């Protein structure tokens, strides 16, 4: 049922039949300030899920291209998995745990503990990205560049695409840390929840890509 | 995780002041809608200009014109015109105006919301679209000019760079980048639309009371959300093949004008086709669905009758949307794809004809028993039905691979998609424009000029595109610079002349519309009443133009379905959605 | 008020709309039925089957076309506003179900019926004894290759491609099988014998298209695509490229000549002699 009660919505009685606004036309609303109905909290979660759906489609296109390209032709050569990648994976998985801990602290009102754990998560995310760059350098040093063969092309492409999306997640983590929440439409807790859903998704996506790259090596 | 701050800081949405905040970087969905419509209006005239040049050449290939070097158009110029015509029309007109233009303006109002869920994101999506248009147009001005690979940009032609042809260097690169930017913009817009529809509906606006315009904007947004990510991936792969030496789409052993290509191997041109058409087919439904919504809406309003079979209409829209993702292979019957997959795609494609047929029957059912008023908006809606039938039926031929053996890549296909996209969808936009202009601008478009515009256009488009079927039957391939080099094309030249003449007349008629548009903004008949059409949906319950926050801070409550016309027992022949039951006048 | 003005003009507009729709429909149907512009006669058995399916489809779509456009014309005229009240009905489930079922049966049935012709082209390959001919497309020319008496195609190498020195497909002279290969910009095929066409491309995607064969097939670089046909009627038939391949796409054409068996053997001998 649309427009149902949440803590963010004011129920306005529109019992009169017209429901028409002020008679003044035009963009300029100088006559009446008109308080706008706030956007319901659940809209942010809807939007996040939709965004994730779009991201899934993007990565599915890349993944299916990977599978098709591998099945064709005879020029597929194994791209060795740089060992640092496993380390990076652990870092990312741990960061998914620390983000959960951070949110629990916030729920209990332990703001300082929240900040600490949230910052740890951010740090781990950055560490992951640094680790990925190290992985790339290792590959490049071994002579495997973007254009060397299709397997290496996909390795760089998939990790770069994931990394770019993860960087977006890090931006969100920083945003949650530094924004002035008093003036916002949603609470810091809500923003933290949204960010953590995205973060876990990035984690899961990484595991999927890792499996894909490992099986297809 | 996107919060929006409107600068007020109190959770209030105050009207912006200053020219820049009001009209340029506005976060008001109505302004953004008009910005999209303006972008589309500009783009459609650019697209028409390109096609005018094409038709000029096709009609009179040996005539000399002063604006060509040496008097004659070159093949690469023709192909560049064709590529950019298709690209600009499909993306900058058909994907923007019906959805991001009218949808942005009227979706929030029709569902009783004060704005989109994420106004700042909305503004971003417009300016990103604008950026993509700039990048695309820049392709005309770089060395080598605009690309020549068609809007479908098949590799290896599109992946090999300048060696494959003029325009395939910097021009093609800019085209790909512009398109990738457009993908981002569309994804942002789709997200906003769907969230708004799901979460911001006013009290009483159940899904079963949504106007069909909203249903089509809804399904169209879902298609866009799921399809544009795939196009983005394809663009990235193509770009990498071009600039980074990868070989996603380029096989080995190629020799291009005696030059051996040693730096690519193992790629598959078919992979691009799969990725592109997986996006491309939903894209054409994105182009047509909003027009269907407008047609349904107007046919009902101006027959003073409910839409026939509202639930079936919703089902058909959803069915078209879903099946739209299952049929992309019908663009690839001849490509070398597995013939067994081809057959499966064929049956699925025939199936998608069913919901389209249901909609057509229901449009006729809406008119039947009605009280039809022939204002210009309605004329375009009626024209839409006729054109959709004409264009849709040729699809039944093309959906059969055994017939496609003859018809693929010929003028029969050109006729098919132009009738649906290049005309029916455009008629949907015109209908919407004549209908909603008074609400957006407080004045009517001139009905007199509008009628002339309608008739010239309606007759004109049939004169342009019906003959193309016959060219196709005679075996005329598409994307041909002229008919001089192949023997069996010679006798068909008179048909080209006919089409070109019809095209020039029809294109000229569009200037009537342009004049009407700008003249009426200043001097059109004033639309003082809120509801001059006696329509039922919520936009007709607010002033023209609407105030900044649409409903004046009051959330409307919806009591009725969207098409309560000529309800027995009611005194008026329409019941607005927001009219409380106790206020409905009894006969 | 707006509506009353429309009422007055509505008969003429309604009539104009109805008349135009009827006229447009009649003219269109006439042009199709009179075959003012039509396919050239098919020269294969498969071609006749395809034509029959086309006519079937035309009949069904034609009936729907006429019914819909006429229905629109009638509705527009009959129910123009001339002071009546509209009849309030929201739909009719029975009709909805009926015409949905009818459409499913008709459309899907049509699609299934068309399976046969498609199967003949692509679900089965060429039979033993079909004449193999390789066709290579390049920007902007076609080159046919016959294997010669040894029945084998010689090796080709991209590095050896040189149109200017008469080796457009890069035939490798060191391969003994190449010696009797015949390369020609046009094709000759004997009437009544099955031909297996092997499509290749040197640079971008092209497409083999001969109207009278009712055949079209993309030639994709990196792929070797086989199609087959049996042409029955002697004559000269144009091959026009049917996939955008660059600025010369419109002039990338050739000729396939169907001739008697005897003439075909003579043609082969003449070609072989010219190639020496």
Major sheet of chain B, described briefly?
2 strands, antiparallel
Give helix % range of chain B. Answer: 55-70%
Mean pLDDT of chain B: 95
| Strand order, sheet with most strands of chain B | 1-2
CATH superfamily of the largest domain in chain B: Cytochrome c oxidase-like, subunit I domain
Low-confidence stretches of chain B: 1-12
Task: Please describe what this structure looks like.
The complex is a heterotrimer of chains A (about 220), B (about 575) and C (about 280). Helix content of chain A is about 65%, strand content about 0%. Chain A is built from five helices and no strands. Chain A is elongated. With about 575 residues, chain B is mostly helical. Chain B is about 60% helix and about 0% strand. In chain B, strands 1-2 form a two-stranded antiparallel ribbon. The longest helix of chain B has about 35 residues, at about 270-300. Chain B is globular and about 80 Å long. Mean pLDDT of chain B is about 95; it is low at about 1-10. The longest helix of chain C is centred in the N-terminal third of the chain and has 34 residues, at about 45-80. Chain C has helices at about 1-35, 45-80, 95-115, 115-125, 260-275, and strands at about 130-140, 140-145, 180-185, 185-190, 195-200, 205-210, 215-220, 225-230, 235-240, 255-260. Chain C has about 280 residues and is an alpha+beta fold. In chain C, a hairpin with a 2-residue loop joins strand 1 and strand 2. The radius of gyration of chain C is 27 Å and the shape is elongated. The model of chain C has no long low-confidence stretch (mean pLDDT about 95).
């Amino acid at each position: 049922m649309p427009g149902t009660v949440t803590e963010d919505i004011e129920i306005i009685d529109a019992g009169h039949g017209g429901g028409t606004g002020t008679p003044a036309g035009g963009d300029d609303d100088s006559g009446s300030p008109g308080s706008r109905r706030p956007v319901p909290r659940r809209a942010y979660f809807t939007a996040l899920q939709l965004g994730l759906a779009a991201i899934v489609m993007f990565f599915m296109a890349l993944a299916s291209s990977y599978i098709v390209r591998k099945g064709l032709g005879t020029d597929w050569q194994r791209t060795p998995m740089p060992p640092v990648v496993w380390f990076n994976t652990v870092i990312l998985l741990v960061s998914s745990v620390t983000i959960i801990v951070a949110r629990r602290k916030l729920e209990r009102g332990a703001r300082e503990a929240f900040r600490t754990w949230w910052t740890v998560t951010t740090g781990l995310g950055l560490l992951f990205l640094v680790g990925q760059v190290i992985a790339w350098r290792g590959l490049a040093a071994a002579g495997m560049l973007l254009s060397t063969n299709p397997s290496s092309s996909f390795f760089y492409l998939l990790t770069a695409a994931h990394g770019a999306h993860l960087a977006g997640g890090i931006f969100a983590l920083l945003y949650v840390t530094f924004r002035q929440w008093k003036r916002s439409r949603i609470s810091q807790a809500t923003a933290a929840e949204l960010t953590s859903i995205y973060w876990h998704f990035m984690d899961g996506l990484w595991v999927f890509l890792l499996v894909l790259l490992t099986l297809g090596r | 995780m996107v919060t929006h701050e409107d600068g007020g800081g109190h959770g209030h949405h105050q009207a912006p002041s200053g020219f820049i905040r009001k009209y340029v970087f506005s976060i008001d969905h109505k302004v953004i809608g008009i910005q999209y419509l303006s972008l589309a209006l500009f783009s459609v005239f650019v697209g028409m200009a390109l096609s005018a040049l094409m038709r000029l050449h096709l009609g009179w290939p040996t005539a000399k014109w002063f604006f060509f070097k040496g008097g004659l158009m070159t093949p690469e110029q023709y192909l560049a015109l064709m590529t950019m015509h298709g690209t600009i029309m499909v993306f900058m007109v058909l994907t923007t105006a019906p959805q991001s233009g009218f949808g942005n303006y009227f979706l929030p109002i029709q569902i009783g919301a004060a704005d989109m869920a994420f106004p700042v994101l909305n503004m971003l999506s417009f300016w990103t679209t604008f950026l993509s248009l700039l990048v695309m147009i820049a392709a005309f001005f770089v060395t080598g000019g605009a690309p020549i690979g068609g809007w479908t940009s098949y590799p290896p032609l599109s992946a090999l760079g300048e060696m494959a042809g003029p325009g395939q260097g910097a021009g093609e690169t800019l085209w790909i980048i512009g398109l990738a930017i457009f993908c981002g913009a569309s994804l942002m817009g789709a997200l906003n639309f769907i969230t708004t529809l799901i979460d911001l509906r006013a009290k009483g606006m159940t899904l079963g009371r949504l106007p069909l315009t909203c249903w089509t904007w809804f399904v169209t947004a879902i298609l866009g959300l799921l399809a544009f990510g795939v196009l983005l991936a394809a663009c990235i792969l193509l770009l990498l093949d071009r600039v980074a030496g990868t070989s996603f789409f380029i096989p080995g052993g190629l020799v291009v004008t005696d030059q051996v290509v040693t730096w690519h191997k193992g790629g598959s041109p078919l992979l691009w086709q799969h990725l592109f058409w997986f996006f491309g087919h939903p894209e054409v439904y994105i182009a047509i669905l909003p027009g269907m919504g407008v047609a349904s809406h107007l046919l009902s309003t101006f027959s003073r009758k409910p839409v026939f079979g509202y639930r079936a209409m919703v089902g058909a829209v959803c069915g078209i949307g879903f099946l739209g993702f299952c049929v992309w292979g019908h663009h690839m019957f001849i490509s070398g794809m597995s013939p067994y997959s081809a057959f499966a795609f064929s049956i699925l494609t025939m199936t998608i004809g069913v919901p389209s047929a249901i909609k057509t029957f229901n449009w006729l059912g809406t008119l039947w028993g009605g009280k039809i008023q022939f204002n210009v908006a309605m004329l375009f809606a009626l024209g839409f039905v006729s054109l959709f039938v004409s264009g849709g039926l040729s699809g039944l031929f093309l959906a059969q691979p055994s017939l496609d053996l003859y018809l693929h890549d010929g003028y029969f296909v050109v006729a098919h998609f132009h009738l649906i996209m290049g005309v029916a969808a455009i008629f949907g936009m015109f209908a919407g424009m004549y209908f909603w202009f008074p609400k957006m601008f407080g004045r009517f478009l001139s009905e007199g000029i509008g009628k002339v515009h309608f008739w010239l256009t309606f007759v004109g488009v049939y004169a342009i595109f019906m003959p193309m079927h016959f060219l196709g039957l005679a075996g005329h391939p598409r994307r041909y610079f002229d008919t001089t080099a192949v023997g069996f094309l010679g006798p068909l030249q008179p048909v080209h002349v006919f089409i070109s003449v019809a095209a020039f007349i029809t294109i000229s008629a569009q200037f009537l519309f342009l004049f009407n548009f700008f003249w009426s903004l200043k001097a059109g008949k004033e639309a003082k009443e809120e509801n001059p059409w006696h329509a039922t949906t919520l936009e007709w319950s607010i002033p023209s133009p609407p105030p900044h926050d649409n409903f004046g801070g009051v959330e409307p409550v919806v009591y009725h379905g969207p098409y309560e016309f000529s309800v027995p027992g009611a005194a008026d022949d329409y019941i607005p959605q927001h009219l409380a039951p106790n206020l409905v006048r009894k006969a | 008020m707006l509506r009353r003005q429309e009422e007055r003009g509505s008969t003429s507009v309604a009539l104009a709309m109805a008349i135009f729709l009827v006229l447009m429909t009649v003219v269109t149907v006439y042009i199709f039925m009179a075959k003012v512009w039509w396919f050239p006669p098919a020269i294969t058995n498969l071609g006749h089957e395809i034509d029959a399916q086309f006519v079937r489809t035309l009949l069904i779509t034609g009936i729907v076309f006429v019914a819909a456009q006429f229905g629109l014309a009638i509705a527009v005229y009959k129910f123009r506003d001339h002071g009546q009240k509209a009849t309030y009905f929201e739909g009719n489930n029975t009709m909805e179900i009926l015409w949905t079922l009818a459409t499913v049966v008709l459309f899907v049935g049509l699609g299934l019926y068309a399976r046969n012709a498609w199967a003949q082209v692509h679900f089965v390959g060429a039979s033993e004894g079909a004449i193999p001919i390789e066709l290579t497309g390049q920007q902007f020319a076609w080159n046919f290759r016959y294997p010669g008496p040894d029945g084998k195609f010689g090796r080709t190498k991209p590095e050896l491609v040189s149109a200017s020195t008469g080796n457009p497909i890069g035939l490798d002279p060191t391969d003994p099988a190449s010696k009797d290969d015949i390369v020609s910009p046009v094709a000759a095929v004997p009437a009544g014998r099955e031909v297996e066409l092997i499509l290749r491309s040197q640079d971008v995607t092209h497409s083999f298209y001969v109207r009278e064969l009712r055949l079209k097939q993309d030639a994709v670089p990196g792929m070797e695509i086989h199609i087959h046909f049996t042409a029955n009627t002697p004559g000269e038939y144009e091959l026009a490229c049917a996939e955008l391949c660059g600025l010369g796409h419109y002039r990338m054409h050739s000729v396939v000549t169907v001739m008697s068996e005897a003439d075909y053997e003579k043609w082969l001998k003449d070609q072989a002699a010219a190639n020496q």
